[in-house]
Amino acid sequence: MSNSGMTFQQISQIRNQLRCLGARPAHEQRILRLWSQAKPQNSGSRPLESFMPLALRQALPLLSENLSSLLRLQSSHPAEDGSVRWLLSLQDGQTVETVGLPRDGVCVSSQVGCAVGCVFCMTGKEGLIRQVGSAEIVAQVAFARLHRPVKKVVFMGMGEPAHNLDNVLEAIEVLGTVGNIGHKSLVFSTVGDARVFERLPLGLVKPALALSLHSTRADLRAELLPRAPKMSPEELVEAAEIYAQQTGYPIQYQWTLIQGVNDTEEEIEGIVRLLKGKYALMNMIPYNAVDDLPFKRPSWERAAEIARSLHMRGILTKLRNSAGQDVEGGCGQLRARQIKAEAGESQHSMSETPIHFVKAKPATVL
Ligand code: SF4
Predict the structure, then answer these.
(1) Is the pLDDT of residue 187 over 90?
(2) Each residue of 323-355: pLDDT tens digit?
(3) Nearest Cα residue to 179 out of 30, 37, 40
(4) Pocket test for ligand 1, best of 109, 120, 154, 160 (most atoms within 8 A of CB)
(5) Which residue out of 28, 97, 136, 160 is catalytically annotated?
(6) pTM beyond cutoff 0.85
(7) Strands 71-78 and 128-131
(8) C-alpha to C-alpha distance for 183 and 205, rounded to whole angstroms
């Protein structure tokens, strides 16, 4: 590369640079494959001189340096469940969280901050700071692969992937073609957005879809996810079901279970009404309590009772813990802690922000 200060936030920028150096499509794919799989650019038995133009060969060391400097490890937090949370800084000093999951998964961030503003999420508190570029997303996977095997990538870290669709879809295409991740093992997680349902079916790589539902009541959902698109739970499930039929993969509904908010009998009824007969899997994740937010985690017994009740009524349900609970596992907590430390705790505590709720209706007796 002629410009040693070159930064690549987007994969399209990397491709353009490579083309300027005489790369043909096969060279581009090779370079992206080795990078996304965390392998050195001189890997392989064939000498580079036998198939790569001189200008491109000469640029490879600097290109590798630029790619590996997309992210820098700020801190690492291994947890008892086998997961590890990494706080990574981007080239402009902003930070994102990436999580190595048990069983060869990695959870990546698609935005710094998030505009959806879910009231139970630390990331949502700061609003959107900036988009994470497609190269920065793939770099999170490459980083994770330096430390552990990765066979599954979930877009469930900081940010709403639907609000950064071009970058997320570009990253998905690379990961699902040269990145050695099965299409079904790429999980696009969203609060639901019409653009997602339009664009995902058109992609070369069609990821699995996780839909954050959290409530079957439109009014309560609007309180919990204040800036999510105004699609009703019924409309979301209908659009998601079409995608499930198109791809042949079930929709993974996400439900953060919060005590006294969405753990009611009324919600169980609502879930059965919406999902019965659908190609769906319900993932219930008891809320990870955070000091700065006024929500409580329900008891494991209550969560298990809800999951059992749904199962008995024909809804495939899995009760899960969020990864790394013992290391401030909630999305955005590491970044929030770092920002707080940098600010010398001078700001007001977020718990001082009043949060008003439409109260859950009294439980329906079955
Ligand atoms: S839970 Fe997800 S969509 Fe909601 S504010 Fe947090 S990062 Fe954004």
Answers:
(1) yes
(2) 655 544 456 666 766 666 666 543 332 222 222
(3) 37
(4) 160
(5) 97
(6) yes
(7) unpaired
(8) 6
Distance CA 94, CA 87 (A): 10
Q: Token pair of 41, please?
A: 């650019």
**Can you give the pLDDT at residue 126?**
84
Amino acid identity, position 277: G
Ligand 1 pocket check for 158: Cβ under 6 Å: yes
331 is catalytic: yes
Separation CA 292–CA 307 (nearest Å): 28
Please give the distance, rounded to the nearest whole angstrom, from the Cα atom of residue 115 to the centre of ligand 1: 8
Closest listed residue to residue 122, CA positions, set 320, 355, 293: 293
Beta bridge partners of 283: 254, 318
Residue 309 has pLDDT above 60, yes or no: yes
CA dihedral sign of residues 155, 230, 125, 351: negative
- CA 31 to chain CA centroid, nearest Å: 25
Please indicate whether residue 121, judged by its CB atom, sits closer than 6 Å to ligand 1: yes
Whether 134 contacts 11, CB under 8 Å: yes
Query: Torsion over CA of 40, 46, 48 and 53, rounded to 10 degrees?
Result: -130
Give burial (CB, 10 Å; 0-12/13-18/19+) of 89.
middle
Sign of CA dihedral 287, 207, 181, 316: positive
Instruction: State in Å: Cα 147 to ligand 1 middle.
Output: 27
Closest CA to 256 of 231, 293, 206, 230: 293
Give the residue from 330, 96, 35 showing the smallest Cα distance to 86.
96
Choose which residue among 96, 121, 125, 213 to substitute to test ligand 1 binding: the one with the highest number of ligand atoms within 8 A of its C-beta.
121
Catalytic residue among 265, 305, 331, 352: 331
Q: Is the minimum distance from the CB of 156 to ligand 1 under 6 angstroms?
A: no
Substitution candidate for ligand 1 out of 114, 119, 132, 333 with most atoms within 8 A of CB: 114
Instruction: Supply φ then ψ for residue 323, to 5 degrees.
Output: -65, 145
